[in-house]
# Entry
Amino acid sequence: MATETPITDSSTAAGPNGSARTAGPGRRRIGSGVLTLFTWLVALVFFLPVLWMVLSSFKQEADASSNPPTFFFVPTLDQYSEVLASGVGSYFLNSIIATAISTLFVLVLAVPAAYAVSIRPVEKTQDVLFFFISTRMLPVVAVIVPIYVIAGRLGVLDNIWTLVFLYTAMNLPLAVWMMRSFFQEVPREVLEAAQMDGASLLTTMQRILLPMVAPGVAATALLCVIFAWNEFFLALILTAVNAATVPVMIVSNMTSEGLFLAKLSAASVLASLPVIIAGWIAQKQLVRGLSMGAIK
Amino acid sequence: MRIPRRHPARAPQARTVRSTIPRWTALISAAALLLSGCGSPEASGEPITVAIVANPQMQDAISLKEKFRAEHPDVDVRFVSLPENEARAKITASVATGGGEFDVVMISNYETSMWAANGWITNLQPYIDQTQGYDDQDFISSIKSALSYQGNMYSVPFYGESSFLVYNKELFEKAGITMPARPTWAQVQEMAARLDDSANGVSGICLRGLAGWGEVMAPLTTAMNTYGGGWFNQQWHPLLTSPKTQQAVTEYVDLVRNYGEPGPATAGYGDCLTLYSQGQAAMWYDATAMVSSVEDPASSKVAGKNGYAPAPVMDTKASGWLYSWSLAIPSTSEHKDAAWKFVSWMTDKDYIKLVGNQIGWERVPPGSRYSTYQIPEYRKISEAYARPTLAAMNAATQENTMVHPVPYQGIQFVAIPEFQDLGTRVGQQISAAIAGQISVEEALRQSQAYAEDVATVYQREDGK
# Structure
């Protein structure tokens, strides 16, 4: 069976008995050392801006915008207390609602849709898939005025459900495509076996398919959460006081006159935390899902 | 087969999936409940929503909200505060399409006359006339006329600014240079050449070079105006390749390239503020609003060491721009009376005193009212810059700062809707010339082509 090939491959690659090392010990060790060093360097380059943001959030404004940059300073929590005192609760609540509910809606809609286009394709499935993804090709700025006018006429400006609806629509095509690729990896024999055992469509979905594609669902959900949480443009234009989300709160700490880097960094750190936590949780799910899969 | 064996092993997880469904439902219900709670805050009174630009003086107004509330318990005011570009995009989208989210918006003299002509904002004159003690004759006259349309005020100023030349007196003394009472661009060039000390990290002058109609194009347009060039002549023919404009732009670009700050093509107001405040520039030509930062000992190393000279001139007796952040009431507002209560509170003489007493006299919004400059406490702290600021504001009219009459409103901008885009695209060309990527001639030739596209519409309207 196809499942056996990766096992053989992985055992060779892992080289548990050290046979791989004996082939070319010195050169390989240097090569892997260089690679590790390079990986660390790349990781450091990507991590530096984040580190700088965290450091700046503990500085006073004058230190944060000094030139040359200040590396040694007396840390302060002033910026955090200032950001928290300006009332960030409603922004976080709005973001959590918009993100959680839109992600839930996306999954509820995308999973059956992806099932249909991958497991039971019909004649025009490819066209349908292309139509889905084509909705992502138009830049949001090109449709913002019609969206704004329609929302205004419907009286749903500054309403969190408008964002929930738009974020669902925004993430749905991507989720369908992602889930489709996961469903395609499920062998048909498994589904046929379930059918032979008399399982209904719902049972097959619940007991066979979903557990098998759980890592895919987690990955898709995480991506939807990140996109919805970070979305700025629609939130900026369509909300005011009742439905403003965290990214809108972050920019409200910027000003064209005066210093703002430290306060902005503190707001950004606070805004990043939920996504980092969500990523961490999903990562665990992903790993568990992968290790539990019998097919992969 | 393996499948039937896996089936029961998966069963517990399937149960988990099922059992999470009620949990999700509960979460959504809880969120919806919370949401319905945050949609209607406990504060009572007629709700008004105010959209403002997140500058320090506006943040002060938000912090004084309770004072307004104490005077007007029947009005519940809520703020949306965003940085300039985001605020402008959002307010324009809302007002232009009649979105109606806002009862009060902060706009500038760029928008006021255009929006008044479109009927997007309310005529405030009847409100002003009916409000006792609200002295509109006290508004600085150049600002008042910039915010009026057909003789009526459509927005009222919160603060105003012009531009002037700040210089570091210590560096001037050391170099043995005296700033002329009314410097010309040629003199500025000469002084910058003598003061430029790259070895010690001091530039002769700091000038904006960052692309954008509100960045490099603001100071540069004042230079173009005083040289006798500009954007358009009376017949809407673009003047960007005219010899006078070319001379102004060439000298500005040469000045900033030779004696200006490092990396001038990306330097904006904020960069020059940092450099000048750190003592790394001998002169800086920019907004009069700079004083609150330049004279603040907490963030500026040159506080108390500065002299202020009028904006450099060439063929006019004065130069400098005029800009004001002001408050207007969109026509779509359903709470106009309550909105006016707030607008009149935030732009009244008493508000200036309130800020002075509660927050500090250095934080007072300047450049809106003559009476501000009569307050003893404010006069004391603003001794070095109050008079030059007021003089710059008074001089900032088209008649004083331009050689030829123009068919539009505005000094450092052309008050037409297309200007934001045109100004930014021309700014990109100028920035490229400052960076040395293209010549000034090339930049202006391309800019002229952009301006011709825009001008066609207005030439046609004129022809009708």
